[in-house]
């Protein structure tokens, strides 16, 4: 299997429509890939809070239209990163889009864990409520987004729904880059799954981005890692390694659920 992670540079100076066209062209350039992944909120910027309300779009909006056409033209599974989704009956959401090789939007995932504490995403966006995995001919994909990496219980839930490839688009800042790579490797080791973590480059909302997208195997080995600037990271691997790792080192069978509270002495 060949996966291409498009570590797109996002800046406040590039209009979203131009970046949308540029991203579509980059997807079309990945001929021969099986899976292509884009970062989180790349059209508007993950820290460009002031742009979200006016730039939000529906699931059949211009970003989805462009990404559907790019997936169909290239005949790839396309995780198009996430958009600011405008729900006519509710708040805006940070919503990931997965397209099949025929351009069909097959799955969406609304980010559950919102970053910002008392500001930004945490107050501007609604929280997703559903665990999402996607059965594909490449294996079962588990969907998560950026800040979700810090919450291992979500990834246990994806594991319990048979996820084998964990796809994590992000807009992770440079000042916490070591956390980004550490947590991506930790989730791979914990779930004995491949992690495909695609970050943004550039600076948006005044926040420099970490880049360093990476692909990690079920043993925690980094198969490929990008640098800090815009680039396409392409890695080939065998998804069957997930089953082999889980059989060779069957740690999950020793999970203890409902462990009793410690006895007070």
Automatic annotation (TrEMBL):
CN hydrolase domain location: 1-239
UniProt superkingdom: Bacteria
InterPro entries per record: C-N_Hydrolase, C-N_Hydrolase_sf
PROSITE patterns attached to this UniProt entry: CN_HYDROLASE
Molecular function, one GO term: hydrolase activity
SUPFAM superfamilies for the chain: Carbon-nitrogen hydrolase (SSF56317)
Gene3D superfamilies: Carbon-nitrogen hydrolase (3.60.110.10)
Keyword field: Hydrolase
PANTHER family reported for this sequence: DEAMINATED GLUTATHIONE AMIDASE (PTHR23088:SF27), NITRILASE-RELATED (PTHR23088)
Annotated family: Belongs to the carbon-nitrogen hydrolase superfamily. NIT1/NIT2 family.
The protein's name: Carbon-nitrogen family hydrolase
């Amino acid at each position: 299997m060949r996966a291409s992670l498009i570590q797109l540079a996002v800046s406040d100076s590039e209009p979203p429509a131009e970046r949308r066209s540029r991203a579509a062209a980059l997807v079309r350039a990945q001929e021969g890939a099986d899976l292509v992944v884009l970062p989180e909120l790349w059209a508007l910027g993950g820290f460009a809070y002031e742009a979200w309300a006016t730039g939000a779009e529906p699931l059949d909006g211009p970003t989805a239209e462009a990404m559907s056409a790019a997936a169909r033209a290239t005949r790839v599974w396309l995780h198009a990163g996430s958009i600011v989704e405008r729900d006519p009956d509710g708040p805006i959401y940070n919503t990931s889009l997965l397209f099949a090789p025929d351009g069909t939007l097959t799955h969406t995932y609304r980010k559950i864990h919102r970053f910002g504490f008392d500001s930004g995403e945490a107050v501007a966006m609604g929280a997703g409520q559903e665990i999402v995995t996607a059965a594909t001919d490449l294996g079962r994909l588990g969907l998560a987004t950026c800040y979700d990496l810090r919450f291992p219980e979500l990834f246990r839930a994806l594991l319990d729904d048979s996820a084998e490839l964990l796809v994590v688009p992000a807009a992770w800042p440079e000042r916490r880059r070591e956390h980004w790579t550490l947590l991506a490797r930790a989730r791979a080791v914990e779930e004995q799954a491949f992690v495909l973590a695609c970050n943004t480059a550039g600076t948006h909302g005044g926040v420099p981005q970490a880049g360093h997208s990476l692909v990690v195997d079920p043993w925690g080995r980094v198969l490929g890692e990008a640098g800090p600037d815009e680039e396409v990271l392409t890695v080939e691997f065998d998804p069957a390694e997930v089953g082999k790792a889980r059989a060779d080192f069957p740690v999950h069978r020793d999970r203890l659920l409902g462990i009793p509270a410690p006895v007070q002495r």
